[in-house]
Amino acid sequence: MKLVSARVTIPLAERYRDRLPLAPGTEIVSLGEGSTPLLEAPRLSERIGVELWLKWEGANPTGSFKDRGMTVAVSKALADGAKSIVCASTGNTAASAAAYAARAGLEALILHPEGAVARGKVAQAVAVGAKLSARPSFDEALSDARELEAKGTHVLVNSVNPLRIEGQKTAAFEIVEELGATPEVLALPYGGGGNLCAYAIGFAEEGRGTPRFVAAEASERATTVASAIRISEPAHADEAQQAVDDSRGDIVALSDTAILDAWRLLAREEGVFCEPSSAAGLAALIADPPRDARVVCVITGHGLKDPDAVR
Questions:
Q1: Among 145, 160, 175, which residue terminates a domain?
Q2: What's the order of all strands across the beta sheet hosting 131-135?
Q3: How do residues 263-291 score in pLDDT, each as one tens digit?
Q4: Which residues are CB-neighbours of 27 under 8 A, at least 6 positions away?
């Protein structure tokens, strides 16, 4: 029987190896992340009065943008001889860390805020064999994760690990490649602030100008229905503020109602089903439209992450 050659996907970290802090010969732990679609949004463009594009990060292997940074962080951990990784997570980091750890043959410990993680994300982490342990809040989970890193028993793979930011900056490279230019505005959710910092680094390294950042956070961070950005104390608050200031952008605080309205609108107008937090950037654009601008809105996670939200 004649064998047909399989189509091989080049790992994200391999495509951008010359822009990432990985030593030559480092084995890349990959699940086929990156190269996510940049979707034109004609109906929402007309409604808002902008040229709107959607960077659909829900198309990553575990359903969120976290995979971009996790491939780099876990590849380095494996190369350094680590046996275990740890993260604090409201869900997406947990799912990504667990999957990439399984791919690398490492143990994964997930510390999560009790009762605050969407069911779909817990299922992902459990299915691939991660160990889960609850804490009263995200901040306490991150503190405990840092302690384990300090003891040398685990490698911390939250975005406070700079390798995560390095991997996530590749989304900026892709946007410039796909558009042929830097957009005038980039809107995205703001939870811990790591992704905002990653985009700022990526556009700066691309060298074709920086967009104006619109960072969308929940007005009530500690209790918002948008669980992925339910973080009281952003780990990257200072750097995120600096990135916004440098771009002459804005941090926009949004009610849950505004976020959920944008979430429904995105699904019903453009057919993109994301988790509620992922629509925060769109909600900020609706609240204060940057007229006649080319805008990219980062849609960070798939709707199947949080199926209960549909109720």
A1: 160
A2: 131-135, 107-113, 84-88, 155-156
A3: 999 999 999 999 999 999 999 999 999 98
A4: 75, 78, 79
Flag whether 4 is in a domain.
Answer: no
Dist CA 184 CA 181 (whole Å): 9
SS3 annotation, 231-290: CCCCCCHHHHHHHHHHCCCEEEEECHHHHHHHHHHHHHHHCCCECHHHHHHHHHHHHCCC
Domain edge (last residue) among 127, 160, 193? 160
Give the number of other Cβ atoms within 10 Å of residue 288's Cβ: 10
Instruction: Give the three-class secondary structure for 194.
Output: helix
Residues 198 and 83 in one domain: no
pTM > 0.85 = yes
Q: Would you state the structure tokens that stand for residue 49, as one six-digit string?
A: 């009065």
Integer-rounded Cα Rg, in Å, for the chain is 18
In this predicted model, what pLDDT tens digit does every residue of 136-187 receive, in sequence order? 998 999 999 999 999 999 999 999 999 999 999 999 999 999 999 999 999 9
Residue 94 sits in which domain range?
66-160
What gap in Å lies between CA 184 and CA 190, rounded to an integer? 19
